[in-house]
Amino acid sequence: MFDIGGGELILILVAFVVLFGPQKIPDITRTLGKGMRKVKDAQNELKKQFDDIEKDINKNINP
To answer: Is 13 within a domain?
Structure first.
């Protein structure tokens, strides 16, 4: 997906530390993790709703 090599990754990490400082990095990563978890939960809920709708449609078509 992203074509990032080792050198680019190290440069990004160094820039991240310089911009935010080492004390803020755990807070930032924790916040990103919580946000990603919320997105994943919302995605799973939406998938469940689509599956429920599909079951209802199939039940009505094939009684």
So the answer is: no
Render pLDDT for 44-62 as a digit per residue (tens, 0 to 9). 999 999 999 999 998 888 7
Count structural domains, the chain.
Answer: 1
- Let me know if residue 4 belongs to a domain: no
Spatial CA neighbour of 55 closest among 6, 40, 47: 47
| Domain ranges, residue 27 | 22-63
The one-letter amino acid at 12: I
| Helices and strands of the chain, counted as H and E runs | 2, 0
**Separation in Å, CA 16 to CA 8, 13, 26, 60:** 12, 5, 12, 54
